[in-house]
Amino acid sequence: MNETVLIVEDEPKLAGLLHDYLKQAGFETSLLANGLEVVPQVKETPPQLILLDLMLPGRDGMDVCRELRSFSRVPIIMVTARVEEIDRLLGLELGADDYICKPFSPREVVARVKAVLRRAGDSPPPAEDLVLDESRYLATLNGHKLDLTAVEFKLLRYLAEHPGRIFSRGQLMDRIYPDERVVSDRTIDSHIKKLRRKIDAAGGDEERIRSVYGVGYKFERS
Fold first, then answer.
1. pTM for the whole structure
2. Does domain 4-122 have CATH number 3.40.50.2300?
3. Do the beta carbons of residue 149 and residue 198 sit within 8 Å?
4. CA 92 to CA 218: how far, in whole Å?
5. Which CATH number fits domain 130-219: 3.40.50.2000, 3.90.1150.10, 1.10.10.10, 1.10.260.40?
């Protein structure tokens, strides 16, 4: 099944041009011209990426982006003729993944779409209520700090970056002990137990890290 790009653009000729180029590149597309229609459609039929114009009738792209980020991590590329730096920064701070200024080459848009989808596929974001700061080995859950060791942080980050994927104890050991030190695979069980206890203490669901009998562990979104 081809990936679907939702094009939100009120200029019919430009929307048609983007549709043609994306279609030629192998994407499915859907089109909207009014900002009020975006959130309901995304909730009903989530696309793989959104090309979101800033200036829209009904509701502007900034407001749309802000609400989308309250419930979805779908990649968003903002498209606009407003090139002021404040708009560029604000768009990204609201959670947009990229920003393209008009006029642009349709080929550039296709390239940006592919790049953003590739990044999203390489590193799925952790759960929205879990924030991981690798530079400081700092983790917070629902605004509460998780007092993690370096090994616990690495383990939680790796599981959270691959939600739903099941990892064996051996795979997790290879990830958090790259120097190949000799440790028991039950060491992972001990780390998981401590992580669950700290998640529970922060008001989270300790079963976010689930045991899969006879296989290993997986992380589930809230």
1. 0.56
2. yes
3. no
4. 31
5. 1.10.10.10
Per-residue pLDDT 10s for the chain (222 aa) are 578 999 999 999 999 999 999 999 999 999 999 999 999 999 999 999 999 998 899 999 988 988 898 888 889 998 888 766 555 555 556 778 888 888 888 899 999 999 888 877 755 555 557 888 877 788 888 778 888 998 899 899 889 888 888 888 888 888 787 655 556 668 889 999 999 999 888 887 778 898 887 788 988 876
Bridge partners of 155, per DSSP, are none
